[in-house]
Amino acid sequence: MNEIDSEAKSSGGTAEAEPSVKKMEYVVESICKRLKVIAVDVDRVQRAKELLSSLQRRKAFINLLGLDDDDSVHANSEDFQRLTSQHSLRIMSRVLSTMSTGSEEMKMGEELSEDICQLPFEEERWGNFFTGFQILDTPSGVNDNENRKCIELSAVKCNQDLTLYLLSGIRCFMLNLFVGPLRENQDLIVQLREAEICVAKEYGFPVVSTVFAKLSPRYQYTGYLAAGQDKSIELKKGYKVILTVDRNYSRNCTSRVIYVNARFLLCDVHRFDIILIGEDIQLMVRAVRQDHLYCCVCRPGELVSFMPVLFPARCSRFRVSYEEVEDLTFAREVGLNVVVSYLAGSVPYVDDLEKVMSSLQCESLRLFARVVLNEMKGCDGELDWIAQRYDGFLVELAEPATSPDILRLCPNAECFMQQAYAAKKPIIFDAWTINEQHLRVDPAHYYYAFYYPDKYVIKSHLCRHSFYFSFLQSAIFDQIATTALSRMPLCDSSHTGADGLARAIVTASIEVNAKVIVVCGVTPRMVQKISHFRPHASILFVSQMRSAEDYVSIYHNVTMLSFRSKSFSSHRRNVFRKSVFALAYLASRKIAKQGEHIILVYNCESGTTYPEKYMIYKFDKLHFVEHLSTSLFPTGQ
Q1: How far is it, in rounded angstroms, from Cα 441 to Cα 434?
Q2: Which residues contact 37 (CB under 8 A, 6 or more apart)?
Q3: Calpha distance 28→359 (Å, rounded)
Q4: What's the confidence (pLDDT) of residue 64?
Q5: Which residues pair with 542 in a beta bridge?
Q6: pLDDT in tens, 587-599
Q7: Distance CA 13, CA 294 (A)
Q8: How many Å apart are CA 320 and CA 349, to the nearest integer?
Q9: What angle do CA 207, 208, 212 make, to 5 degrees?
Q10: Model confidence over 373-431: pLDDT tens digits?
């Protein structure tokens, strides 16, 4: 920032434009060199998290079975000292020293699953503090509706808030790479991974979450006004203004310095060119620098956040902007698995983006599209290709002209949502206009707003003001979910009958009022199919697949429990250990209580990675290890 100020003071009235634009290879190389340094911190935290996950898994099996999962506890016994902190699971540390016989194993099961809230109330324990009062009910668990939220992280340092999000059950987070420098976005990822380690040490079990990024727009926009500014700034005629491509100003725009994502265009700008901001503001270029344009206001107007900017027609129109290339490289370096294009665009638009992703070795990234639902017009089905081409969608709602107003959707918008849901593609819905009651949803459109979306975006600084929509969505979803499942036509398009099995699992969970659906597998395909039918029960996915951690929590009601073991002696042993590990997690976190139903989904036949069997289990917190050893694979099979 000081650099801009000093340049503004030393710059004269004339300046020459920079030479021709750099070659693509040099641009990508410079970005990679800068971001590889950034990615070091993310890799370091990720390795620490994986080490903690391995130690916690081994310690859990020592407590449950008396055996180390990797058969290497004696060789690496000093590693367990890393778990002895104030956040470690106290139950496991107490049991570790007393475990030797089968009876002691039962005691461990009792302590592991003991719910303090179920103990009889003793007045002496509280010193008659509650004299004259009666405890009507035991504290309830985490609100299931929290797992339906996706938090959009801001650049504010919020370690404590990240920990609270994870403790409340939120496992999906979004970054807007247009806002703030990439270094601050990388710091947010590191803070989130550190918060996962902190919560994992408190739980005694691994904690993983999904982070995805919204790319910078391909077209030019101004940045966001600084926090201390008003909602708008008046730019008067004759004001001196600096247009900069420095990302440090992307959320700190003032009347003097304005950020624009136009790095590729500056080389073609000449002195005395006119640049249009919005519909009214016109700036005349006084001088050109490598990263800045020194301008003066020749037509006044009101400057607000994120206004479109129009450069002269002479400026080159690149198929993909520099900022998009930088964002894609950043996502690859820090290990993100999902990116969101700012616009759905056209077919050539997507082709160009995919070609660039391939040249940057980012072809493995899942490409989502941002869609403004109530701005989709027409009834000819010309937008159906969007639902087929992209891997998922970030759906937003435009502010109505008059507030409040009724949400109106054209047939193209309705058809798009139906096709995206039918294709089992994740839908993340930004419903802030509904939460602020600027838009009211007609009952005819309940499915599009309250049933089809997998997650609902809430900005981190507004999370405590989202109660209205959370309660509204939860109430309406509970009313229409069962009806929607019964009316949904059964059309199994899979080759293995997985669609029918997933529907049967969800139907069974509703009939027995199951608390959790535990899926033991390798790939998350069955989890996606079960999530498609929108069960009330939470879905716990137990897998050793590292790449699934980066995107599976985007789906409806899904939480992943990482299980990466080096010891796989047999298929049945692997399934048994995953199931025991999942039930130990449910018991320890008091998610499932004594006598509640749990559905276990697993692959019975060896040589397959796709679950093909499910079992309804009435949870016994004392003997679930013994029950699973005889129920998962009956002797007759």
Answers
A1: 8
A2: none
A3: 10
A4: 65
A5: 520, 561
A6: 988 898 889 999 9
A7: 9
A8: 9
A9: 155
A10: 999 987 777 788 999 999 999 999 999 988 889 999 999 999 999 999 999 999 999 99
Q: Which of 104-108, 330-334, 552-556 has the lowest mean pLDDT?
A: 104-108
Cα–Cα distances in angstroms (integers) from residue 95 to residues 99, 108, 198, in the given order: 6, 6, 22
d(CA 69, CA 204): 16
Please provide residue 424's backbone torsions phi and psi, each rounded to the nearest 5 degrees: 60, 35
Q: Which alpha helices (DSSP H) does 460-590 contain, by range?
A: 467-487, 498-511, 525-532, 571-588
DSSP state letters, 347-391: HHHHHHHHHHHHHTT-TTSEEEEEEEGGG---SS-TTHHHHHHSS
Helix 322-334 and helix 24-65: axis angle, to 10°?
A: 30
Residues, the chain? 637
The model's confidence at residue 282, banded by pLDDT at 50, 70 and 90, is very high
Q: Give yes or no for a contact between 91 and 111, defined as CB atoms under 8 angstroms apart.
A: yes
Q: Is the pLDDT of residue 233 over 70?
A: yes
In one letter, which amino acid is 472?
Answer: L
Residues 244, 257 contacting (CB under 8 angstroms)? yes
Amino acid at the residue 78? E
Helix (H, G, I), strand (E, B) or coil at 270: coil
201 and 557 in contact (C-beta within 8 Å)? no
pLDDT recorded at residue 61: 67
The model's pTM: 0.82
> Cα–Cα distance between 545 and 208 in angstroms, integer?
12
How far apart are the C-alpha atoms of 269 and 311, rounded to whole Å?
8
Torsional sign, CA 184, 189, 193, 198:
positive
Residue 16, both tokens: 């020459």
Burial of 604 (0-12, 13-18, 19+ CB in 10 A): middle
Both tokens of 567, joined, read 């010891």
Verify cis geometry, omega within 30 degrees of 0, for the bond prior to 611.
no
Long-range contacts, stretch 467-476, CB < 8 angstroms, 24+ apart: 468/435, 468/437, 469/431, 469/432, 469/434, 469/435, 470/145, 470/149, 471/145, 472/434, 473/145, 473/148, 473/431, 473/449, 474/145, 476/446, 476/450
pLDDT of residue 105: 43
Whether the predicted pLDDT of 315 surpasses 70? yes
pLDDT of residue 69: 57
Cα 197 to Cα 51, 88, 140, 175, 489: the distances in Å are: 10, 11, 25, 20, 43
Residue 610 CB-density burial (10 A; 0-12 exposed, 13-18 middle, 19+ buried) = middle
Residue with tokens 């109660």: 467
Query: Which of 290, 285, 289 lies closest to 271 in space, CA to CA?
Result: 285
Backbone phi, psi, residue 566, to 5°:
-90, -10
pLDDT score for 555: 96
pLDDT at 81: 44
